[in-house]
């Protein structure tokens, strides 16, 4: 089986490459070429910039693949470029979308794929553009010209991730817990959530390759263990042997403080993050996301320790200021009650 991964160096796509190599697939990756040393096995590396449509078409014109896994399409135009460049030269296309592409609030919890509508508010560009991509792909699926499968991961962590925590502060979480510094949590921290890890999600993408049961359909690929958002910090605390000092600030106030940094909380993470995987399990028998929150965070902690990560001082100072404002506000409220 010859598979092309568009991307290949991101958190999920690296795991996809490794999972495909484990199945002894012949794997090629297309990306800008900055991190192709990451792979454990032999991988063909095609270097280019997909946003340069003409260059991309030229690089693909003499190549053929059994399947293309597209991890770097973020809107309809990106997806169209993939289909046009590889039309007639790929037996199947697997596109990475996101559970962010759903309209909120949900109609179902845990969320079922075929019961929900796609996001329609351009104010949150990432979700809206992913939804636009899916609308385009839905039209292509109806035409029936090429097998297309859509996979929707939820928030996914893994080696190399840069999206961990409320501020996406990553290693700073470990630093602040060890330093007994307060950690910021949005709202009361009790939004239900399932925390997914890249090797589990990769199994869905690789399992879709050559699987005719999955043609023309969309699927979740998430962990199904039920947690709340605060568990992310509490579990890190258990691993470090230090109880975290968690400060709660309303999502609305956080968005006012930094729309660019906190809009994802307002539009996406203030709603349940529990997703039904029964459709994927039906069409990909044996699929199970079995990396627990504790095991996944332990993997990340080992990575931090091994690679010697540095504190993001800008985010550390921002978290100091926000939690300091909260503490000062609490003092003022106590004075009012005297």
UniProtKB/TrEMBL annotation:
Pfam families reported for this sequence: Epimerase
Record flagged with keyword Oxidoreductase: yes
Domain of life (superkingdom): Bacteria
GO MF annotation list: oxidoreductase activity
Statement: the UniProt record of this protein carries the keyword DNA repair: no
Family annotation (InterPro entries): Epimerase_deHydtase, Lipid_A_modif_metabolic_enz, NAD(P)-bd_dom_sf
Protein name, UniProt field: 2'-dehydrokanamycin reductase
Domain NAD-dependent epimerase/dehydratase positions: 3-211
Keywords: Oxidoreductase
Catalytic activity, EC: 1.1.1.355
Gene encoding the protein: kanK
The species this protein was found in: Paenibacillus konkukensis
């Amino acid at each position: 089986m010859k598979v092309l991964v568009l991307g290949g160096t991101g958190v999920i796509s690296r795991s996809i490459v490794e999972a495909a190599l484990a199945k002894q697939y012949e794997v090629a990756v297309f990306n800008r070429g900055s991190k192709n040393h990451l792979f454990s096995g032999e991988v063909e590396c095609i270097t280019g910039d997909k946003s340069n449509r003409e260059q991309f078409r030229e690089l693909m014109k003499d190549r053929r693949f059994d399947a293309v896994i597209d991890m770097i399409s973020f809107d309809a135009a990106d997806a169209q470029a993939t289909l046009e460049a590889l039309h007639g030269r790929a037996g199947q296309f697997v596109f990475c979308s996101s559970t962010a592409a759903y309209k909120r609030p949900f109609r179902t919890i845990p969320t079922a794929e075929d019961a929900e509508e796609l996001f329609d508010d351009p104010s949150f560009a990432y979700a809206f553009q992913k939804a636009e991509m899916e609308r385009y792909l839905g039209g292509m699926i109806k035409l029936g010209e090429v097998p297309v499968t859509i996979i929707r991961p939820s928030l996914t962590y893994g080696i190399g991730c840069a999206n961990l925590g409320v501020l996406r502060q990553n290693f700073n979480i470990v630093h602040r817990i060890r330093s007994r510094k307060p950690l910021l949590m949005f709202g009361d921290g009790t939004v239900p959530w399932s925390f997914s890890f890249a090797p589990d999600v990769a199994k869905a993408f690789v399992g879709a390759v050559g699987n005719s049961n999955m043609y023309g359909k969309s699927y979740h690929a998430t962990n199904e263990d039920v947690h709340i958002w605060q568990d992310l910090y509490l579990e890190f605390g258990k691993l470090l042997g230090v109880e975290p000092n968690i400060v709660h600030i309303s999502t609305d106030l956080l968005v006012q403080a930094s729309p660019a940094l906190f809009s994802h909380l307002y539009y996406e993470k203030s709603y349940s993050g529990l997703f039904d995987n029964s459709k994927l399990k039906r069409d990909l028998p044996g699929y199970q996301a079995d990396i627990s929150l504790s095991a996944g965070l332990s993997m990340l902690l080992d990575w931090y320790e091994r690679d010697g990560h540095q504190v993001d001082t800008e985010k550390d100072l921002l978290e100091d200021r926000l939690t300091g404002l909260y503490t000062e506000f609490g003092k003022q409220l106590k004075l009012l009650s005297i």
